[in-house]
Design a protein that fits this description.
By secondary structure, this protein is mainly α. It contains 13 helices and no strands. It comes from Argiope bruennichi (Wasp spider). Keywords: Signal.
Amino acid sequence: MMWSTILPFLLLVKATLGETECSQNPFEFCSHPKLFHMIPQTVSKYNKLCPDLPKYIECLKRFQVTCEAVVFFDSDEEYEKLHDFYSELCEEGSLLNTIITENLKCLNKTFDSSLCSDETQTLLHEFKSRDSPNGGDLFMDFECLKSVYGAACMTANLSKKCGAIVKEAAYDVIRRSNFLQYSCPTQLGKRLLDDPRTTELQTKYQDFFYTLLGEFSDNDSGSGY
């Protein structure tokens, strides 16, 4: 008798909570981790903030399950890979965690002094000035090139100032975080690789640019260090 009274109440509470949650913007409901926007100066601060990364992914997954109209992860495997990656960033003693925490000073100095944003805008202006051979979506082309060149510029600077191990870790972070997946999906990346406007660009970071555009447009490579 008691359960026949309580169960409908619990179901009503669950449904109401779901409706309330689903009426919100998921990126407001699941607060962005501070590490998305800054690099801590100290290891203790990094280790304090880092657990917010896997929690954020868990929140998005929970939102997706509760609010079926929203899809952040196409499969459980995609979710698990991303969650494992963020967890590894936070796991003291893991290779990625060690590389990052031992190079916080260099990472901060490199990002603070970077002119990658200005250089990216210059490259996009040069790209736009050339005629498109196939009438592609200029907005999507821009978004892809902006992401790839920005990442190439930063990776080149990290390689120069922080060393090869940090460069390889940066490649791994870009690859495993799906950084380019949405702005530069596979087919778009491959098309831009064959676009004369792209191949004629004389970028300051040519090798890094084409490594990222070619390798990460496929998004299937493993760790490189």
